[in-house]
């Protein structure tokens, strides 16, 4: 099957004005303006009204949190108080709740142009031991590439941590299940639909042994490592009190400062720490919406990237940044980064790069995130036919500056997943009804 996405209005890829030829799952040709495919095609898609981007890649999320968006008791709180308010609610998660939350989050992401999503699931109350398997099945049916990170917490409030005992697990259980889900779900090959990474919730919610053993397990199995780091100044102080050093020093001590790792947030670093992260090639999932809503701070993304760290974009969980819209997140990244670095240092092409190839690097994937021959055929395509775009000059800039947030077409691995702004084959109203009922039960 050969499809020609012909003559796009604009495209985020060098000299590709003639369009892109997709063969099976991958990009077979990138055509310069006026160019024609080298051989016959089965289908032509006229993209003359579409801005074509590589499929967007989300590097940090907590799908289950879609059930606690705008949750009244947690409103207007900063990170630690916010977490302490929500942990007892999340302790009520069931397999049904996680299934519907994952599907809803994936639907929301897909509609924003996201074709690959990383999720960080670290809440394992009794009965939810198969959380990763539930998410893998949901992603398979939704037709979105995922990196599912097997999270962990083994320090409850009794041990000096933040979560209640009912959502933490023992070290043996965590390590055995981490090995099990790698065996069961991780596909290392190009075009993999499901990959696994290992992800203690944060360095202060697990023991030193869990950090070290998790790093060893990830290295043995060639999978990635993920955690939250340096999100707030409170966390830095907590870490100094608990471990006698700053979070990045601790991370290095436990064998986590390397290019297998990507960190959520990465806000409160010194310039020396930024240089060390860059040198190590450790990735940063920049989550501007959550950072603004929880008043956490401003990630030094431009400096991190300049020092060699891959920078990607994450929407974060839907209880901190209550929307899972990757285009909105990219726009917020542009705005907040300009506040730090000025207009000339950060452009719409920078944030689009972070949301695509930068995110792919964080996830250690070189088969996605770019429109180039041999890459997976993943595209997010936006029409500029709403009032918000009318009169726009530069079409590529317009998708960020005018606030595009709903894709007209999305292709994942050569197949159309969004057509005319709707997810193909999904009963969206039925999913929302099921999700709303679950949210009501969980927060009752
Ligand atoms: Zn998070």
Features:
8-stranded parallel beta sheet, alpha/beta, binds zinc ion, 14 helices, 444 residues, single chain
> How much helix, percentage-wise, in residues?
25-40%
Task: Tell me the β content.
Answer: 15-25%
Q: What composes the largest sheet?
A: 8 strands, parallel
Mass-distribution shape: globular
State mean pLDDT (0 to 100 scale): 96
Backbone CA Rg: 21 Å
Tally of contiguous helical segments: 14
SS-derived structural category: alpha/beta
**Which molecules are bound in this entry?**
zinc ion
Measure the end-to-end span: 50 Å
Low-pLDDT residue intervals, each spanning 5 or more residues: none
Q: Spatial order of the strands in the main sheet? A: 7-8-9-10-11-12-13-14
- What's the β-strand tally? 18
Structure description:
With 444 residues, the protein is of the alpha/beta class. The chain has 14 helices and 18 strands. The protein has helices at 79-90, 95-111, 131-142, 171-185, 208-221, 233-243, 247-253, 271-280, 288-293, 301-306, 326-341, 348-362, 395-401, 428-442; strands at 2-6, 10-11, 19-23, 26-31, 43-46, 50-54, 56-58, 114-121, 145-152, 194-200, 224-229, 261-265, 283-286, 311-313, 379-383, 409-412, 415-419, 422-423. Helix 4 (171-185) links the parallel strand 9 (145-152) and strand 10 (194-200). Helix 2 packs parallel to helix 3. The protein is globular and about 65 Å long. The protein binds zinc ion. Zinc ion binds at residues 60, 62, 120, 228, 264, 316-317.
């Amino acid at each position: 099957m050969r499809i020609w996405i012909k003559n796009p209005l604009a495209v985020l890829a060098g000299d590709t004005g003639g369009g892109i030829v997709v063969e099976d799952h991958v990009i077979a040709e990138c055509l310069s303006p006026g160019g024609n495919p080298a051989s016959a095609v089965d289908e032509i898609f006229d993209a003359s009204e579409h801005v074509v981007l590589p499929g967007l890649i989300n590097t940090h999320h907590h799908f289950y949190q879609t059930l606690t968006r705008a949750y009244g008791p947690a409103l207007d709180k900063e990170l630690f108080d916010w977490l302490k308010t929500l942990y007892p609610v999340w302790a009520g998660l069931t397999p049904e709740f996680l299934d519907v939350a994952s599907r809803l989050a994936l639907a929301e992401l897909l509609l924003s142009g996201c074709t690959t999503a990383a999720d960080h699931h670290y809440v394992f109350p009794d009965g939810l031991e198969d959380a990763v398997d539930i998410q893998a099945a949901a992603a398979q049916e939704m037709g979105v590439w995922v990196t599912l990170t097997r999270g962990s917490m083994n320090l409850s409030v009794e041990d000096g941590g933040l979560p209640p005992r009912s959502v933490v697990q023992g070290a043996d259980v965590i390590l055995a299940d981490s090995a099990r889900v790698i065996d069961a779900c991780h596909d290392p090959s190009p075009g993999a639909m499901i990959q696994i990474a290992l992800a203690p919730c944060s360095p202060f919610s697990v023991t030193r042994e869990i950090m070290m053993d998790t790093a060893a397990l990830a290295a043995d199995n060639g999978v990635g490592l993920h955690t939250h780091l340096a999100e707030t100044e409170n966390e830095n102080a907590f870490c100094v009190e608990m471990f006698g050093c700053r979070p990045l020093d601790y991370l290095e001590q436990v064998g986590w400062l390397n290019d297998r790792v990507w960190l959520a947030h990465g806000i409160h670093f010194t310039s020396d720490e930024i240089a060390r992260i860059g040198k190590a090639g450790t990735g940063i999932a920049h989550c501007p919406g959550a950072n603004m809503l929880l008043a956490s701070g401003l990630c030094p993304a431009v400096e991190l990237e300049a020092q060699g760290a891959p920078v990607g974009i994450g929407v974060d969980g839907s209880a901190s940044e209550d929307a899972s819209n990757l285009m909105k997140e990219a726009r917020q990244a542009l705005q907040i980064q300009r506040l730090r670095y000025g207009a000339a240092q950060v452009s719409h092409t920078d944030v689009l790069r972070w949301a695509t190839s930068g995110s792919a690097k964080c996830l250690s994937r070189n088969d996605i995130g770019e429109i180039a021959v041999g890459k997976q055929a993943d595209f997010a395509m936006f029409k500029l036919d709403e009032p918000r775009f009318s009169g726009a000059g530069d079409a590529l800039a317009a998708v960020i500056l005018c606030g595009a947030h709903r894709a007209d077409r999305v292709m994942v691995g050569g197949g159309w997943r969004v057509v005319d702004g709707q997810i193909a084959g999904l009963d969206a109203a039925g999913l929302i009804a099921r999700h709303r009922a679950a949210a009501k039960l969980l927060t009752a």
